[in-house]
Amino acid sequence: MPKDTILSIAVLGGTGKEGSTLAMRWARSGYRVIIGSRSLEKAQQKVEAFNAQLGDDYLLPADNAAAAAQADIVVLSVPYSAHKATLEAVQAQLDGKILIDVTVPLDPNDVFTVHLPPGGAASLEAQTMLGDRVRVVAAFQNVSFVKLKDLDGDVDCDVLVCGDDPDAKVEALQLVEAAGMRGIDAGPLANAVAVESLTPVLLSINRRYKIKGAGIRITGLPTGQ
User: Does a structural domain hold residue 215?
Assistant: First the structure.
């Protein structure tokens, strides 16, 4: 079992590729991690498989509302088509907490072209919907599952973190490090418009150069930052 935990993390959409690999990385770093899903049965089935991969009972299953209620920090990793409905379903459980929004507003008919949602960015829409009692941070939009699935491998990619609450950003940056990456404070939540928009750009690069998992690196920073 992992070491004594500091925080509990709920990953809503944690049965998917991105959410599950982040969850497993955090669990192995010592966090108490709850996999959330609309279906408790699906969460239970997936957690059984993930724990078998990890070799111990690191992860816990729950439906989304129960997962959010039990957690200190909630991570939302769902398709944009499920973004609003998921937030509406757990809004009461998010009160007073940090929400790390991983969602990218991709157009399913053309994932290679930037698509700006009505609110400018998924994370901005989340903040507007949830209000000031929830501290929304945008992060992990530009890290491919291809890079995360090797739980012991190095992740050759930086993570841009945007948010309006300094303390919430600190927590998010710590989770980036715990997942094996370097986090970069990329400014206020409004900058998530640019960060989320980088994902279709990276997908286009993957297609053009026949590669998988294109990512970003920020140059010019001193070693260790």
Answer: no
